[in-house]
Amino acid sequence: MTTxxxxxxxxxxxxHLMREGKxxxxxxxxxxxxxTVNGVAGTQxxxxxxxxESLSVIGDFNEWTPGKxxxxxxxxxxxxxxxxxxPGVRRGALYKYHVRSRVRGFEVAKADPFALRHEVAPGTAxxxxxxxxxxxxxxxxMSNRAQVSTRAAPITIYEVHxxxxxxxxEDNNRSLTYREIAPKLVDYVKQLxxxxxxxxxxxxxxxxxxxGYETTGYFAATSRYGTPEDLxxxxxxxxxxxxxxxxxxxxxxxxxxxHGLVYFxxxxxxxxxxxxxxxxxxxxxxxxxxxxxxxxxxxxxxxLFWLERFHLDGLxxxxxxxxxxxxxxxxxxxxxxxxxxxxQYWEAVELLQRLNEAIAxxxxxxxxxxxxxxxxxxxxxxxxxxxxxxxxxGPTADRGLxxxxxxxxxxxHDTLKYFNRDPIHRRHxxxxxxxxxxxxxxxxFVLPLSHDEVVHGKGSLLxxxxxxxxxxxxxxxxxxxxxxxxxxxxxxxxxxxxxxWREWNHDGSLDWHLLDDAPHRQIHLLVxxxxxxxxxxxxxxxxxxxxxxxxxxxxxxxxxxVLVYERIAxxxxxxxxxxxFTPMPRANYRVGVTAPGLYREILNTDAAExxxxxxxxxxGVQTTPVRAHRRELSLNLTLPPLGALFLxx
Length: 649
Description:
single chain; 649 residues; alpha/beta; Immunoglobulin-like; TIM Barrel; eight-stranded parallel β-barrel; 14 helices
């Protein structure tokens, strides 16, 4: 076939890389690609379906007629890639693949797994599209973003569900489009001082109520909010404001909608053929066949696609725990042990290692963050092919998953359980705060207060707090200060900065009217204050992932429910953190320090402007030569009720 313009043909090298599970850019060869052949404009289609007997393109250009535009096998039958050029089909055409299987005569119309765009739900057709037309304006950001992705960088993340952040009540309560939300979100996030936005999954999904976690289009930005170029414009705008963008990405499972990946060619192609590995009983979804090399190439290509084509600064990888354990969410007898008789899913482990290696090689300035809720070792450790970092020698150094960061789910569960307790009982559960000291530096952590904690009857963060109205707001201020003072990067779900009373509702907007009420406005002010303090104070972020950045002064004052510790910068600069988890103010509370001078209160969550009672230390305390905490100098402090103090020399 001669051409007058390049055609993205699937060749022998592509077939080899795909079968090896190492093809990084399958989206350039499979899917729909407008092209010109012999002077005739049209679209080249290619799809993987090894068990198809015949395969054709159907669409609005041929009245959805099966067989009218057949595709032909490329290479051998075993390769399973079907390809063909359809003249006259232009950008914007609707299409699907009609698959007639070699297995029991199964026939089905499937959306394109590599489509760049799909119809707005409930439509399920793919749309012929290209991405080359968008002109990026973030060159300065892209050339310098490596500095915001390091372990030492301050990373504070605002998690956003685009469809419910802000709506248009006068227009049938519709969601904002990508372009409509851009200036509003940019101004808001910049004002609050977050370094990154994390967008909940924007890969195309048929059910809005899945929040994007049941993906059918792994290369398509959901059309609910506009075109792919519109999403690019949103990312561009965030970058222009100096804000990084992470995308929630879901490689663990996919929905069973007929038009999607499930049973694609009449066989379990993308999913594992054994339901004990290929079907998730809790989520009623299909699980990828992590050991199949073509599936690995598909997922690897999807991850790199979002980083490369949409200039995203990282991926938060959903459901890692569900991938690496064969018995995740299953009872005895419902899962298959591995060859050694264990529950580790080594094929998934290898996939994740390969994924992180490829991202480190192809997009080294980006980060990956694992949602992993167990004690699997070295989630953020180097993979087998990487040299171990200093301090990471030993038997676990050669089997890390290679993520840059991991969500600290243990911290989140223990902390929220503790804060939910009546303060009078907290002295009996002090260990729920100090337990983290045993593992705080075993991984590189993100401390998450995410969407999962404010849905499904769990109540909002404010509603979790015990006591009267004043105590609830004081406790929430204390919770946020505690999070920002602990080692680890930070994540806060949208609406938490407003101190919403109700749970998150994906069918409505955030309760923006709360900012008219002083206590909510003061929580909003506190979040901004904490973000700016965290970013501007090296001691609070520089050694977030290293033991040298944290020192306990008193982890054992359970009787008073008080914690005392210091955060330390590389140059030795220290921030003293003293937290009182009871509503009783404590006078003459002595804390040891290392250097003489006036220690300024750089934060007091009980300050009147933050909604507190105004108790504290009049802005600062001078050291006295009284021994405390194994130190010759100390401060005589007044600890505010349900309050946190950050002090700095």
